[in-house]
Design a protein that fits this description.
The protein has 750 residues and is an alpha+beta fold. It contains 15 helices and 33 strands. Strands 8, 9, 10, 11, 13, 14, 15, 18 and 19 form a nine-stranded antiparallel sheet that branches.
């Protein structure tokens, strides 16, 4: 058959049907799509911007979506449909942190509904359980009828499975069977067949025998019918009529609540309980405000995120590391966050110290890398931990958490003079120092080398497998002694000597001070890169320098281990264009063969890394440089969703007015990124507490040009509560004590 031809302006066409071509197949995106996140204590929920969790979304680069508790996903499908179609999103927000609100409408449904006829408002709240209320409104001028459905499912996978760990065997999903009843017995007066309360139970039995359940009870209007795990309502709405649907989902493990939080009964009660607890939190913390609204929004968000990240572990509550991957107790992360936020609320530090002391290592256990005196790395509660498939019960594979715990112990004492807590934890402090000293004996440095077959290869804060590289981009081998870890050990000995002095243990004072001096001498000889005027990232197993240019030496700047002239050289090098990208300092020089702006620790920028460096710059008197670092990080944060700093972002340089490039799977909110906001604030006002001697020194405070006035209200130092006011005039920042409740001596030094 001769093709029918079409001639137009000298060109010849035929219809597409006559010459079919092979279409290039579509692919599922491998990158996460936008999501909403809510968290309350040990629960967190991640959905798409519609508030849905669909099977397609989980395949489409969003494996982290779901409702999680105790490292288990209790819901992996939550999908609202109207007439079997996805609604059209109008707006979605998780601004409150513990709640989500979504507005959507209907698509065009031929012969049935014109577009934008139905308004659907979803509200979800976490409070020991998941609550959802759905308000459906008819905005047309006539009666309409249509079908709304909610589909649920739960795979009960361990969070480590979600993160990509393979399991050779899993437990089994269970089907709930209604108990057999007398079929001729009439319904009771309170539970007629018409009025019965519908519910769904999704269940799973793990390899350890534990039975986990997601129990869903519908509220307001019961579903017209259930089809599998899908609830279906047939709605008939008059013009401008609104009907409400809802449910509560409780999680159980072996018939006990999986969450440590006592669940409310209704969404309204859940929201009220959350708001009351948050208000109590706000009343306890230092209240911070300025004359700039954007700065205030960043501060308010950081305060709220710290509240959200708090998590219960037994009788203590500390800050979990981040959502979604690290919503649990970490040693390093919790300690650094507690240190960053001492000026906000010292209680965070107390709870963190107490909790980690409870888990302090007691025995030699190679599988968990536990040793007497060692502070844990990570605690997990899911099925894989219970079945010993991972060593996180807890896992102790961290080299820096122990000296960091000692540093926080001394810092907490300086802020609070809490003698009771310091006395209670003194044996833990001695055990921690003993662990350090045992490991210093062989080489003089604190190093790590993986012992557990399921443990971490790298055990400093940069713990990805590809980040400890030399200048050629080659991976370091053997036991690794990181530069910043030696600085932590130095600071731990110097600071703990001050505590020992208050206890009149002069033998320990002299010993620890001498050990610190000795460490400083050999460190400045062994780690110094003469050609680079910089410090090595680490020493490898052969004692050779790992000579790449990284951000790690920046952590050492404020800890006193550098000689002064070398400290200034490091400070200058960190601000060179290959390290400073305009938003912050990269983890690895862009001149390194291993540099990747999208690398987790090989070229990205981390807010907490930078806030520690800013503290170091300030300690050297490089105030303008420290404020420049603050301004870059603040500008980055102000351009993020909810003005919330991410765990990290890509190392691409600031070019004109471009936005920072987000790292695809960064945690948000994340603890030490949030804490960096307060550490940068501490860098500006430069508070030096000495609660033991009832004194607070404020040394040369310096507000950036973007802020004229700053107020700190309800600041706690020892037993005194005070309000401070800072005001900038040109290059000078003045401070005055606006109010004081207590006899603290405040010394302001310009």
């Amino acid at each position: 058959m001769t093709p029918e031809k079409i001639f137009l302006d000298g060109k010849t066409f035929i219809t597409a049907e006559q010459a079919p071509i092979a279409e290039w197949p579509c692919v599922i995106s491998e990158r996460p799509q936008p999501t909403l996140t809510a968290k309350d204590d040990d629960l967190f929920l991640v959905t798409d911007t519609m508030g849905n969790i669909s099977g397609c979304s989980l395949q489409d680069g969003n494996p982290n979506m779901g409702l999680f508790c105790a490292d288990t996903r209790f819901l992996n499908r939550l999908e609202l449909q109207i007439e079997g179609r996805s609604p059209v999103l109008l707006s979605g927000s998780a601004d409150k942190g513990f709640a989500m609100t979504v507005l959507c409408t209907n698509p065009k449904i031929d012969g049935h509904l014109t577009p934008d006829t139905v308004g659907i408002r979803r509200e979800m709240v976490l409070n020991g359980a998941l609550f959802e209320e759905i308000e459906v409104t008819n905005y047309s001028t006539t009666h309409i009828s249509f079908e709304i459905s909610l589909s649920f499912d739960a795979d009960f996978v361990d969070l480590f499975e979600v993160r990509g760990y393979n399991r050779t065997k899993r437990g089994q999903l269970l089907r709930f069977v209604e108990p057999i009843t007398d079929s001729v017995a009439p319904p009771t007066p309170h539970h007629s067949l018409h009025e019965r309360e519908e519910s769904l139970t999704l269940a799973y039995q793990g390899l350890d025998g534990s039975v986990m359940e997601s129990r869903i009870q519908f509220q307001y209007r019961q579903p017209d019918h259930l089809q599998g795990y899908t609830a279906v309502w047939r709605l008939k709405l008059a013009s401008h009529e609104t009907q409400k649907l809802g449910y509560r989902l409780n999680m159980f493990t072996n018939n006990q609540s999986s969450s440590t939080v006592n669940a409310a009964i209704t969404l309204g009660q859940a929201k009220a309980a959350e708001l009351m607890e948050e208000q109590n939190w706000v009343q306890q913390i230092t209240r911070i405000s300025s004359d700039k609204s954007l700065f205030n929004r960043v501060i308010e968000r950081a305060e709220q995120d710290l509240y959200l990240l708090r998590q219960s572990f037994g009788k203590h509550k500390t800050v979990s590391a981040g959502v979604p991957w690290f919503s649990t107790l970490f040693g390093r992360d919790s300690i650094i966050t507690a240190s960053q936020t001492l000026m906000l609320n010292p209680q965070i530090s107390k709870e963190t110290l107490m909790l980690l002391a409870e888990y302090q290592g007691k025995v030699e256990d190679q599988w968990r890398e536990e040793e007497p005196g060692k502070i844990l790395h990570e605690l997990r509660l899911g099925e894989m931990a219970r079945c010993q498939e991972i060593p996180h019960t807890p896992y102790y594979g961290t080299v820096d958490a122990t000296p960091l715990w000692l540093m926080l112990y001394a810092e907490y004492y300086a802020w609070t003079h809490d003698i009771e807590t310091i006395e209670q934890l003194w044996p833990n402090a001695l055990a921690a120092m003993d662990w350090i000293d045992r490991h210093l004996q062989e080489t003089g440095y604190l190093s790590y080398y993986r012992q557990s077959k399921r443990g971490l290869t790298n055990q400093g804060w940069k713990d990805s497998g590809d980040c400890i590289v030399n200048r050629k981009g080659e991976l370091a081998q053997g036991a690794i002694a990181l530069c910043e870890v030696q600085a932590y050990v130095y600071a731990a000995k110097i600071r703990l000597a001050e505590v020992a002095k208050s206890k009149k243990r002069l033998d320990l004072v002299e010993r620890w001070q001498e050990e610190a001096r000795s460490l400083k001498t050999r460190f400045n000889k062994d780690f110094w890169l003469e050609e680079e005027d910089f410090y090595a990232l680490a020493l490898d197993g052969e004692g050779q320098q790992v000579d790449s240019i990284t951000s790690n030496p920046g952590h050492c700047l404020y800890l006193g281990i550098f000689t002064p002239e070398k400290a200034y050289s490091v400070a200058e090098r960190l601000r060179a264009p290959d390290m400073f990208n305009g938003w912050g300092i990269r983890t690895l020089s862009s001149l390194s063969p291993a540099y990747n702006p999208m690398g987790y620790h090989t070229g990205s920028v981390w807010p907490h890394d930078n806030s520690l460096i800013a503290m170091g710059l300030r300690s050297l008197g490089l105030i303008d440089q420290a404020l420049e670092l603050y301004q870059g990080l603040f500008n980055m944060t102000s351009r993020q969703s909810y003005q919330r700093p991410p765990e990290l972002f890509c190392g691409y340089e600031l070019n004109g007015d471009n936005n920072p490039i987000n790292y695809p799977v960064a945690c948000t909110p994340q603890a030490w990124a949030t804490g960096s906001i307060f550490q940068l604030l501490q860098m500006m006002v430069n508070l030096v507490p000495d609660a033991q001697n009832n004194c607070l020194r404020i040394i040369d405070p310096a507000l950036p040009e973007s802020i004229n006035r700053l107020s700190l209200h309800n600041l706690r130092v020892g037993s005194t509560i005070l309000d401070l006011e800072f005001e900038r005039s040109g290059n000078t920042t003045a401070c005055r004590v606006a109010k004081k409740r207590g006899n603290l001596r405040v010394v302001i030094e310009a």
